[in-house]
Design brief:
The protein has 196 residues and is of the alpha+beta class. It folds into 2 domains: 66 residues, 434 Repressor (Amino-terminal Domain) (Orthogonal Bundle), CATH 1.10.260; 76 residues. 24% of the residues lie in helices and 27% in strands.
Length: 196
């Protein structure tokens, strides 16, 4: 490769992270190649920008190095499982001028959906308890360890079957909680279409 050819950002990131982790974990290219199931030459090709660093290679390197694949190549977000590129059409401060900004919606692999029957659902996120009608609707949740700084949680208290929604500042005492999940997404589809 010629010295004046500019390296792609992903290759720069990979070589930087590779050098850091190589010092930290004390491995050689040969040892890494065995663990990755590649030849030493293949690793050298990627590190020196002689082979295309596509999403599969980035993911494999990231897993080996113990980093998020997006730290190596932020442009592969759409190729990763549980990651979607979203577009915010407007900013809530001004709904007359489109901003069309993209952002990544990344969910832990532990995320799952919970169905809510709105006729009996209680929302404790406001100043007072109230019933929310017009459902069913759904919330995407995950274990608290995978999203510890959530603003909303779904909580099942000990001795109860049903769960309730709580803001982080209004959570019951830990000794009263049977199950608690962080809320990632709320889908309020009042049309009830598509439910089987």
């Amino acid at each position: 490769m010629s010295a004046n050819k500019k390296l792609p950002k992903a290759v720069k990131n990979l070589t930087r992270i590779w050098a850091e982790k190589k010092l930290e974990k004390k491995f050689t290219q040969v040892e890494a190649a065995k663990m990755l199931g590649w030849s030493q030459g293949a690793i050298s090709q990627y590190l020196n920008n002689h082979s295309d660093l596509g999403p599969a290679a980035v993911t494999k390197f990231a897993n080996f190095l113990g980093v998020d694949p997006l730290e190596i190549d932020p442009s592969i977000a759409g190729f990763l499982p549980n990651t979607r590129t979203r577009i915010a059409k407007y900013d809530a401060s001004n709904l007359t001028t489109p901003v069309n900004r993209t952002f990544l919606d990344t969910n832990p692999s532990s995320a799952f959906w919970v169905r809510i029957d709105g006729e009996s659902w209680t929302d404790l996120t406001g100043d007072q308890q109230r019933s929310i009608g017009g459902a069913p609707w759904h919330i995407r949740v995950c274990p608290v360890k995978d999203f510890p700084n959530a603003r909303l949680y779904i909580v099942q208290l000990k001795g109860n079957k049903e769960a309730k929604l709580y803001r982080s500042e209004a959570l019951p005492q830990a000794k009263l909680i049977n199950k608690k999940y962080s809320i990632l997404d709320i889908d309020i589809n009042l049309s009830q279409t598509g439910e089987k």
